[in-house]
Amino acid sequence: MSLLAELAGNKAKARAAAKELNIAQLENLIEGLNNALVKMQEDEQARQAEIEEKARQAAQIAKMIEESGLTIDEIASLSGARSNPTKGKTVKPKYRIEWNGETIEWSGRGRTPKAFQEYLDAGNSRESAEIK
Predict the structure, then answer these.
(1) Is the Cβ–Cβ distance between 78 and 72 less than 8 Å?
(2) Exposure of 59 in the CB half-sphere (CA atoms within 13 A)
(3) Looking at residue 89, what is its pLDDT?
(4) 3-state SS, one letter per residue, for the chain
(5) If the chain, 132 residues long, is cut into consecutive pieces of 10 residues, what is the mean pLDDT of each piece?
């Protein structure tokens, strides 16, 4: 527990500690505490105003949703931001090999397919499988 918290909780200890200070020191301490109090009150008012503004905005949005006839799930599915605009799009293959009578293509991205790994392990190079 800090000394200030202890003194704030016990008036007798606060008076005893104040007796160790001269008038100028005590006035300076009181002024500092008053300034801290004003700052904390301003911060709390700003926090409350922010909460009230968010509540007002939420009510306004809820009213707009109600008027539109959409559900929250519909809005979420329609406005869901894409994490990556290219995600899920197919990429043209960069490599092609004939392996065990089958044509296998690979974009060169991600994990190397088993057929390509066997092809490369057999001493062939990637350059020899490039699509030109």
Answers:
(1) no
(2) 6
(3) 81
(4) CCHHHHHHHCHHHHHHHHCCCCHHHHHHHHHHHHHHHHHHHHHHHHHHHHHHHHHHHHHHHHHHHHHHCCCHHHHHHHHCCCCCCCCCCCCCCCEEEEECCEEEEECCCCCCCHHHHHHHHCCCCCHHHECC
(5) 81 88 93 95 97 96 89 80 72 89 90 91 90 86
Q: Structure pTM? A: 0.47
For residues 106 and 130, give the distance between their C-alpha atoms in angstroms, rounded to a whole number. 9
Which two tokens mark 56? 């007002």
- With left for phi above 0 and alpha for psi between -120 and 50, is residue 87 left, alpha or beta? beta
| pLDDT attached to residue 1 | 57
Query: How many Cα neighbours within 13 Å face the side chain of 126?
Result: 9
Q: Please tell me the predicted confidence (pLDDT) of residue 28.
A: 94
